[in-house]
From TrEMBL:
InterPro entries: LysR-type_TF_proteobact-type, LysR_HTH_N, LysR_subst-bd, WH-like_DNA-bd_sf, WH_DNA-bd_sf. This is LysR family transcriptional regulator. CDD domains: PBP2_CrgA_like. GO terms for biological process: DNA-templated transcription. Gene3D superfamilies: 3.40.190.290, Winged helix-like DNA-binding domain superfamily/Winged helix DNA-binding domain. It comes from Sphingopyxis lindanitolerans. PROSITE patterns: HTH_LYSR.
Amino acid sequence: MMKLSGIAAFLATAEAGSISAASRRLGLATSVVSERLADLEKALGTKLIQRTTRKLSLTESGLSFLPRAQRIIREADEAEAELAARSGTLAGPLRLSAPVSFGALHFGSALCRFLLEHPEIDVSLELDDRFVDVAADGFDAVLRHGPVGDTRLIAQRLAVSRRLLVASPTYLKRYGCPVALTDLSNHRGILYSNRESDWRFRTASGWSVVRPTPALRVNNGMIMKDAALAGIGIALLPTFFVHDSIASGALVALDIGVRAEGAELFIAYARDHGSTAKILALAASLRQSFGEPPYWDNPLITQGE
């Protein structure tokens, strides 16, 4: 007979790519994970994993069993969560992914508040700026900036953030301060490399895209902020990155008469995951922590209003 522990060991190994990585994820000794895999293969009467000295791969039977294993573990977790919710306690594992910079600046403290409220939940958090595949990468939910276009996912909005053009006083003294949209093309831009046509502004005739002279392209908001502080150029950043620097005067919010496209923060999870009580409780807790409007959107900061 199959044991749930064996299925969990197989799933962790398939997702992590090695038995040693799976053992770290499960918090078990490598020998225990290997033993549970062997017991599962014996119960099923087939080889699921092909082991060599160089790599580990799934057999044809393993590839066929993988989606069933994912469903079994997910349904077991959801059953546990549902029963815990009915008893007034949320419990069990919750694997999350969030962007690196936002995770360090804001999500970490909000998540700690959630865990204090629900100490029986076992959270595993990975910070990653790439757009992870929720189901394929084994996550229960992910935090994302911007719209979630994957129709396999349910997305719930957590917060709306403004984005502001910012530059250091040193840069503005050297290159001048832009006062209109047309001025931006003559300036040096610190650009986010993961998004094309990132500098979008709402004008009376619709959306307008500006392409400044690139001074730096990077896929991390904190490095963009550091570059702006150093006087490298102008950056268009969400207020959750720059609100403190604007308040201190280290960065200046630029007013060019129009407003930049905003940034939205979502939590997304697979449609077939169900309305798990843990994810919904996390979303509610995050909204409360961030506020409406979010605490990083200082009402005194204006641009194009």
